[in-house]
UniProtKB/TrEMBL annotation, chain A:
Similarity remark: Belongs to the DNA polymerase type-C family. DnaE2 subfamily.
Keyword Transferase: yes
Function: DNA polymerase involved in damage-induced mutagenesis and translesion synthesis (TLS). It is not the major replicative DNA polymerase.
Superkingdom of origin: Bacteria
Enzyme superclass (EC): transferase
Cross-referenced HAMAP family: DNApol_error_prone
Domain Polymerase/histidinol phosphatase N-terminal: 6-73
Name of the protein this chain belongs to: Error-prone DNA polymerase
UniProt-listed SMART domains: POLIIIAc
Gene that produces this protein: dnaE2
Keywords, comma-separated and alphabetical: Cytoplasm, DNA damage, DNA repair, DNA replication, DNA-directed DNA polymerase, Nucleotidyltransferase, Transferase
Automatic annotation (TrEMBL), chain B:
Keywords: DNA damage
Name assigned to this protein: DNA polymerase Y family protein
Residue ranges of coiled coil: none
InterPro entries listed in its UniProt record: DNA/RNA_pol_sf, SulA_CellDiv_inhibitor
Superkingdom per UniProt: Bacteria
Keyword NADP: no
Organism this protein belongs to: Pseudomonas typographi
Length: 1023, 468
């Protein structure tokens, strides 16, 4: 009969590069071995404790919350939380130790322990016992101290045991058995050695004594423990485990209360704010959906989420006061309440979106509102939150970055002694973000022998390591805010960025424990839109905003139907442009679909074509039942959104809302961990029970699988669609303003300033060159005879030019126009570099003539010394300098500005190209489908979407527009060099037309870059 | 004075290629940090694959498959420069390494000895070709002009100043040896040829460019002198060849060995001396190199005979571990300037006897007979104790000082278990995983044995060592 046992000292994978098993594995093993309890005691962290809690519930083995730590100049010990006070003390200790050390390290001091209660301590004396440490611990913990006896079949266990027992007796404490487990089973020994080598930045062969001598640090069977330990020591573990009664469910989280003024409850204050906002939103109460607001507020009160809405409202209010544009999205964001509070600009009463679709009484999930802010100004919002609630009560959420296959392969290969180039080559065999290990073919191609035992070891270990947490980093904008100091709930540590603090839990952990988070995210398009609105006010004298842009504008939808969408939010990519003429959006909800449909999820789930056929009337929508019709009607019977899949499971297969949420989580993770199989059976059974056909059930399951992690929620698509419509409307009606704002917000979006300017010119907008006499840092507008103003290119387009210099120029110019280069240099205090950049960019043409002259002139500017102030520089005899040729100007334009207002390079080459029978993009619409065709252009994009098997999409640009080229895999393999290396490419192929969408399917690629003579064209490679 | 410039346009690449049996295989040299490896050089066949210097390695791998790569090794480049300077010293007493990857030789004084320039130039070409270096050679009245002309020309010999001026005027600005930023400035002003710059008023140029530019132009045209530091040959020789794969037989080492010995011979020939003793070191990925000393009765400098001697000494060597690179070291070179050496010789003489003693012992008893005891940090006993050169190291506490070379079956009749089991599970990474439980057993005769039982094989104990 094996003795009962509880393990009190065990590390999980969250002791980074130490623990070689996940909590799930540890608890499964503990259950199998019949342990009474398992303590997870990661080193000075609770980052893995929520996962451990979940695993403990799943396996029905008691979890003891604890942490192993080393006191600076003092003992190592394990602390275990006895009760809630002990847990809070532990969080406080970890927070104190982490906050005073750089990210990833900790410094625990003796004084941190004063007044600590509710914690039990196990002293880890090690082989060289320092009794002074024991005495100090005894002083702190008294009867709550034990001496941990950890036997690992070392050189002389009996001797060690005797010495520890002697030390315990000397201190008057009891001994207890523990394992110092680093893994769940002996089989992880190799991975544990590898992690040790990674931690020490060395190889396993060099790690020597830093490796453990054997694999005993795992959860050992109780009969083995009985052979090693005296029975009393094993029995003691149970006594300790029985005392540790803390459970994470005891945590009490309270939302901050200060947002509610005296005399109000959160509910009454939310009601007041909502009513005030509703007055503003619905002028004189016209169209105000009173019933809807009442219903929503009732649900919010019922669930106790008032404070959450008030918090988001407060952040949004701050942004509005600072004129920072923002827009909420997420399950709760599309509510009438959020519209009234100004969190979203979508009016739910006329968008066809219903709040209950996103939040309901039955579904027990917390509300989720992400708010996007202008990307250049989000930091102001983040600092506001820290100031408003204080660093004690507000912190960012963590992200537990985990090993993907490339990283795992890289670290393991390095630890196993592969050279740097071989490591790179091997890591190159796996996709950077993928989760699959390289295939033997791919390995052979990269020059590896897949049968080589050393390589096999690397791959096996990398496979084990995959998915392990690697380090904690900060979530880009997920805030947790609490009424009480956060470190009473969860340890807080420093982020890599100064002035930021991060809690040790990620968003899944927060969900599980019931903490609410607010996402403060950054979005480039919002910066662009705010600039548009500013320019509109200056230029047209009208105060436009997201809310009052005219909806349902036919001209805008017509433009979208032509796929004329360079710069339009979310639908400007090539795939989106190909979809637009087929989908021809006519109303707002079409945009919601358009945003969501060109995604890997619907594409892999084969939902796009059925939807298009039904939309174009080629096929009748069919609904297997009336209940499902309600769910799928708005997408013509094809599930396109994540919410629909969940709803479908509820309606058709009888899932509870909670189970549907489980399904959503499994959908996101099945590629990595599997776990969809139980749902397959359950969905099928449920559907058959509800009289759906076997074929229907199978099809739905395939669609869910295809959806995988890429399903797009309708609640987010709706918010994106709003920004999409706003940007489209601006592009349609104010193209000059839109293009200017886009360039001034760059880098963002899909297109370079060059492409945006070319697009503007094709729409008849005049563009003026950079000129030091008129240009400001940003691109600006200049009046013309036409209705649309002209765009004056800004100094920001000059590569490497500093904003400070540009502002100095603007300021000096206000005092009067510049007379010559010397005057400019002197009054704007320009250094030699800035002067040269202006000359090379052609910005001095008005002062000094062509580039060469300008460069000659700026070189003669010398710093004015006070002594010689007012003394004119000696007059110079004029020097004969050549004029730049058209090609030289073009070259210089691209090199300095990345764009040109002169002739397009292809127009200079056009005569030569027509000798090779190359057609321009303008001629392509006149050519019949299936005809052979030659095209040539600058390569501006190479894209290899993960969804389309092996196809590379190449975008060529010529003087009239873009040509879309499709390169199939076999050609890409054969002509790798031309495909990857060309800046100017000629494509011989065949024209394919599908409605208004035209591609050239390549048959042969020719690298024509030689013709460009060093023209600097940047190609953006998208993956 | 007449100055020849030998420009070595792909010195780093040649340094690697000359150590390889098949220089036609595509080869690139890599540099930069591990995260961002960049091609630093590519040979002709690699260029034919579309590989260019400056390309990130990841792009190169996307472009082409099946090319070799080696490290761009600055130390190796410097070594090759020193080798070539020593070789050139055989042709002129004034050799300068002032410019990187180029040799400057004053040849006006040597023309009498090595014949008229075309003949002399051919000799230089031949010597460099034999050593495996590509090169461009020019001749000019001053060293700066010789170096600048080599940017564009090969074989051009300009001897009088007027002709030089005409050649210089036609030179593209980018090739004129100006600092990169000055050349760029000139081009941005529309100045394409050096003549255009020289045609501008000196005052106007002086106002726009730092003084170095005019100084360089003056030196280039021979209007101002150039002070050069001249090469002084050292009195030792050291050269190293990195192998591109792990070599496990001495036969495969013969080709690089021949290169090294030929370099040595060229070197001592240029010094007009010989070599009496040198060491060939076989360097391994791990652990100390294997040394193969080669001693001669008298000074020797014929490459063929030196190679035969070295080969005779190398071939019997058992290559225990794969060889990564080969180094040749010659400390004993007959004095080049005997008087000087006696005056300034500061080599520590006391090192000699130990080396000599060890060599003598090895010569008498065989190389394997003289070894120290080394201790390596490894949990496996047989890996932790190794015979190694050097003084004996301290061993860990609870393990015996005497390990048997081979474990033996251990049969117990009687004996007292003193300690154990100590479990050792380690070494999976090199295929030599052990899983054992060790025991300390006192035999009736008082001896303390260290024995183990292999886990998973319940039968049988093995004796690994004895405690002292």
């Amino acid at each position: 009969m094996s003795p009962e046992y509880a393990e009190l000292h065990c590390l999980s994978a969250f002791s980074f590069q130490r623990g070689a098993s996940t909590a799930r594995e540890l608890f499964a093993r503990a259950a199998q071995l019949g342990y009474r309890a398992l303590a997870i005691t990661d080193e000075c962290t609770l980052a893995g404790i929520v996962r451990a809690w979940e695993a403990a519930q799943a396996e029905a083995v008691a979890l003891i919350v604890g942490s192993e730590m080393a006191v600076e100049q003092g003992p190592r010990c394990v602390l275990l939380a006895e009760n809630l006070a002990g847990y809070q003390a532990l969080c406080g200790l970890i927070t104190a130790a982490r906050r005073r050390a750089p990210k990833g390290e900790y410094r625990l001091l003796r004084e941190d322990f004063s007044g600590v209660e509710g914690l039990l301590a196990l002293w880890l004396p090690g082989p060289d016992i320092d009794l002074a440490h024991g005495h100090w611990l005894k002083g702190v913990f008294g009867e709550r101290l034990w001496l941990a006896v950890e036997l690992h079949r070392g050189p002389d266990d009996a001797h060690c045991l005797a010495r520890w027992e002697w030390a315990a007796q000397a201190l008057g404490v009891r001994c207890v058995a523990s394992a110092d487990a680093h893994m769940h089973a002996r089989g992880r020994r190799a991975l544990q050695d590898t992690l040790t080598a990674i931690r020490h930045h060395t190889t396993v062969a060099e790690a020597g004594q830093r490796l453990f001598a054997n694999g005993e640090r795992h959860l050992r069977p109780r009969e083995q423990l009985a052979q090693l330990y005296p029975p009393a020591l094993l029995a003691e573990t149970l006594a300790i485990a029985a005392r540790c009664q803390f459970d994470l469910s005891q945590l009490q989280y309270h939302y901050p209360r200060e947002l509610v003024p005296e005399g109000h409850t959160p509910a009454s204050w939310l009601r007041t704010l909502t009513d005030e906002g509703a007055e503003r939103r619905w002028r004189k109460g016209r169209g105000k959906p009173c019933e809807q607001l009442d219903k929503e507020l009732a649900i919010i009160t019922d669930k106790g989420y008032e404070a959450y809405f008030l918090t988001v409202h407060d952040i949004v209010r701050f942004a509005r006061e600072r004129n920072i544009l923002c827009q909420g999205r997420g399950s709760a964001a599309n509510s009438a309440v959020c519209f009234a509070l100004g969190i979203t600009a979508i009016d739910p009463s006329n968008s066809g979106l219903l709040f209950e679709r996103f939040i309901s009484r039955e579904r027990n999930e917390p509300p989720d509102i992400d708010v996007d802010f202008e990307h250049e100004r989000r930091e102001e919002v983040i600092q506001y939150v820290f100031q408003r609630y204080g660093r004690q009560r507000a912190a960012l959420t963590a992200v537990a970055s985990s090993y993907r296959s490339a990283g795992a392969v890289r670290d393991v290969a390095k630890a196993l002694g592969m050279g740097p180039d071989a490591v790179n080559a091997l890591a190159g065999c796996v996709s950077r973000h993928g989760d699959e290990l390289p295939t033997p073919e791919r390995l052979r191609e990269a020059g590896f022998d897949p049968a080589n035992p050393a390589l096999r070891r690397v791959l096996v270990l990398a496979g084990e390591l995959q998915g392990f947490p690697r380090h904690l980093s900060q979530h880009p904008g997920g805030f947790v805010i609490s009424e009480h100091p956060l470190h009473t709930l969860v340890p807080v540590e420093n982020a890599a960025m100064a002035e930021r603090t991060v809690i040790q839990w990620d968003k899944d952990d927060l969900d599980k424990v019931g903490l609410l988070k607010v996402d403060v995210l950054a979005l480039g398009m919002l910066s662009c839109l705010r600039r548009c609105f500013d320019l509109l006010r200056q230029w047209r004298g009208r105060a436009w905003g997201l809310v009052n842009i005219p909806s349902d504008c036919p001209a805008t939808y017509a433009m979208l139907g032509r796929a004329d969408t360079v710069g339009v939010f979310q639908i400007e990519s090539r795939a989106q442009m190909a979809m637009l003429p087929r989908l021809k959006p006519k109303e707002f909800y079409d945009l919601v679909i358009q945003v969501a449909i060109v995604r890997p999820g619907p594409i892999q789930g084969d939902m796009v074509h059925p939807y298009l056929r039904r939309r174009n009337g080629d096929e009748e929508p069919d609904y297997p039942s009336d209940e499902l019709k309600a769910v799928l009607k708005r997408t013509l019977g094809v599930p396109l959104f994540q919410e629909q899949v969940m709803q479908l499971a509820i309606v058709a297969a009888g899932y509870t809302p909670g189970e549907a949420d489980q399904l959503r989580r499994s959908m996101a993770a099945w590629k990595r961990h599997g776990g969809l199989e139980p749902h397959q059976a359950k969905l099928r059974e449920g559907m058959l029970r509800n009289h759906y056909s076997e074929a229907f059930a199978a099809r739905i399951f395939e669609q869910i699988k295809g959806f995988g992690s890429y399903g797009f929620p309708e609640s987010h698509a709706a918010s994106f669609a709003l920004l999409c419509y706003a940007s489209a409307w601006l592009k349609c009606h104010e193209p000059a303003i839109f293009a200017t704002a886009l360039i001034n917000s760059w880098p963002m979006g899909f297109y370079s300033p060059d492409q945006i300017l070319q697009d503007a010119r094709r729409h008849g907008i005049q563009t003026h060159p950079v000129d030091v006499r008129y240009s400001t840092w940003d691109c600006s507008l200049e009046a013309t005879d036409a209705e649309q103003p002209a765009i004056r290119m800004g100094l920001r387009l000059i590569r490497g030019f500093s904003q400070g210099a540009a502002e100095a120029i603007e300021q000096a110019r206000r005092a009067g126009p510049f007379t010559d280069v010397a005057d400019l240099a002197q009054r704007a205090h320009l250094d030699a570099r800035a002067r040269e950049q202006l000359a090379d960019a052609g910005a001095l043409k008005g002062l000094a003539g062509h580039r060469f002259r300008a460069r000659w002139e700026v070189a003669s500017v010398q710093p004015q010394l006070p002594l010689f102030a007012g003394v004119q520089a000696p007059a110079e005899a004029p020097v004969a300098l050549p004029r730049p040729s058209v090609g030289e100007d073009l070259h210089a334009d691209y090199a300095t500005l990345g764009t040109t207002l002169g002739p397009h390079p292809l127009s200079l080459l056009r005569r030569r190209l027509s000798k090779w029978r190359c057609r321009s993009s303008r001629e392509l619409p006149l050519i019949e489908h299936g005809r052979p065709v030659n095209v040539c252009g600058l390569v501006t994009g190479r894209q290899r979407p993960g969804t389309a098997s092996g196809v590379t999409f190449v975008t060529l640009e010529d003087e009239f527009g873009m040509v879309n080229v499709v390169v199939w895999l076999d050609l890409a393999e054969r002509q790798r060099q031309a495909l990857v290396g060309s800046r100017l490419m000629q494509v011989q192929g065949r024209l394919e037309r599908n409605g208004e969408v035209i591609h050239v399917v390549a048959r042969n690629l020719l690298d024509m870059s030689g013709l460009l003579d060093g023209l600097a064209v940047r190609s953006r490679d998208f993956r | 004075m007449l100055w020849a410039c030998i420009l070595l346009p792909q010195l780093a690449l040649d340094g690697v290629l000359r150590g390889r049996a098949d220089p036609a295989r595509p080869l690139v040299l890599l540099g930069g940090p591990t995260q961002r490896r960049v091609l630093k050089a590519a040979n002709a066949s690699a260029r034919a694959l579309g590989l260019r210097p400056g390309l990130p390695l990841s792009t190169a791998q996307a472009l082409a498959l099946g090319f070799d790569s080696a490290e761009y090794d600055l130390a190796q480049v410097a070594q090759a420069e020193r080798l070539l300077a020593a070789w050139a010293y055989g042709f002129s007493a004034q050799v300068s390494l002032h410019y990187p990857r180029a040799l400057l030789l004053e040849v006006g004084s040597s023309l009498g000895l090595f014949g008229p320039w075309p003949h002399f130039q051919a000799t230089l070409h031949q010597g460099l070709a034999a050593m495996g270096f590509s090169r461009r050679i020019t001749l000019a009245p001053n060293p700066v002009a010789a170096r600048v002309l080599a940017n564009l020309h090969d074989g051009l010999a300009v001897t009088d100043p007027a002709a030089l001026e005409a050649v210089l005027c036609e030179l593209p600005i980018a090739c004129a040896g100006l600092a990169r930023e000055h050349a760029a400035s000139c081009q941005r002003m529309g100045l394409r040829r050096l003549g255009q710059l020289l045609g501008l008023p000196r005052q106007a140029v002086a106002r726009r460019f730092p003084a170095e530019l005019l100084q360089h132009l003056d030196r280039l045209r021979g209007l101002a002198p150039m002070a050069l530091e001249f090469y002084q040959p050292p009195d030792r020789f050291e050269a190293r060849i990195e192998l591109n794969y792990d070599v496990e037989s001495t036969q495969a080492l013969l080709f690089p060995l021949r290169r090294l010995v030929a370099d040595l011979a060229a070197y001592v020939l240029a010094r007009d001396g010989g070599v009496q003793r040198f060491v060939v070191q076989l360097e391994h990925a791990l652990g100390p190199p294997t040394e193969v000393p080669v001693g001669l009765l008298g000074a020797e400098r014929d490459p063929g005979r030196l190679f035969e001697l070295a080969r005779g000494r190398l071939e019997p060597v058992q290559v225990a571990r794969p060889v990564r690179s080969l180094r040749l070291l010659a400390e004993q070179l007959p004095a080049f300037v005997p008087g000087r050496r006696e005056l300034f010789d500061a080599r520590p003489q006391q090192l000699q006897p130990w080396e000599q003693l060890r060599e003598r012992l090895r010569a008498r008893l065989g190389d394997d007979a003289v070894l120290g005891l080394g201790y390596a940090a490894d949990h496996r006993p047989e890996q932790a104790w190794r015979a190694a050169p050097g003084p004996p190291a301290q061993a860990g506490g609870t393990r015996p000082g005497w390990l048997l070379p081979q474990v033996q079956p251990f049969a117990v009749d009687a004996g007292a278990l003193q300690a154990g089991p100590e479990r050792v599970e380690s070494g999976w990474w090199d295929g030599g995983d052990v899983r054992r439980d060790y025991y300390r057993v006192q035999l009736p005769d008082g001896r303390l044995a260290w024995v183990y039982r292999a886990l998973g094989e319940p039968e049988g104990l093995w004796l690994q060592g004895w405690f002292g």
